[in-house]
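ugh ok so i messed up the first submission bc i forgot one of the chains. this is the corrected input, ALL of the components this time, i swear. 231 residues overall. if the numbers dont match what u have on ur side tell me asap before i send this to the collaborators (the ones from the other lab, u know who)
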Amino acid sequence: QSVLTQPPSVSGAPGQRVTISCTGSSSNIGARYDVHWYQQLPGTAPKLLIYGNSNRPSGVPDRFSGSKSGTSASLAITGLQAEDEADYYCQSYDSSLNYVFGTGTKVTVL
Amino acid sequence: QITLKESGPTLVKPTQTLTLTCTFSGFSLDTTGVGVGWIRQPPGKALEWLALIYWDDDKRYSPSLKSRLTITKDTSKNQVVLTMTNMDPVDTATYYCAHARYSGSYYADYWGQGTLVTVSS
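and heres the new structure output, hopefully the right one now
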């Protein structure tokens, strides 16, 4: 059972904006550890999407953005596209549990 | 360019010890700030971070699995080895290794393709 909670699923029509929350606690996100986000397309290895709360690696479209506030973080996808249909995971560090992933969110493009 | 590849058995029996090797290229595990981690994913389930070894040979383990895990590095061979003892069917998963770097906490910026390990008698 992960200490970082995400909604199981979110959905949106092409072109819409969706957000995925990642809720932690004072021992992880609230302890000022950075949050990172990964995208996992079906049958493939995860891919880094956002690091350090809000930074995009080279090659990641600016439709993806991340933010952090208090004990939570969010990933936003604007201009949703069919190719964005995937599982998304947040990840951080917990002072008791070491490195932790979120529970994962499946994004469906309607 | 950084690449990583996992290797090891695809099938292990319950109670056996699993040994997985991560062979990498494009970076050195002697470089300050670099780490290599192991992450697993049971079929249809979420990612789980297992262990991380740092450039200075410091190590972090998942507390729930710490008693069963050992992570080591061989810098001359560009390899990181993970051993997991007393395997159980619930350990059936795809096991990934990843290059890790730091930005407020370590994160995995390059991943191997993963290797599916099935635990069954």
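quick check: Chain A touches chain B at residues 2, 32-36, 38, 40, 45-48, 51-53, 55, 57, 89, 91-93, 96-104 (CB under 8 Å). that seems consistent at least. The longest strand of chain A covers residues 86-94.
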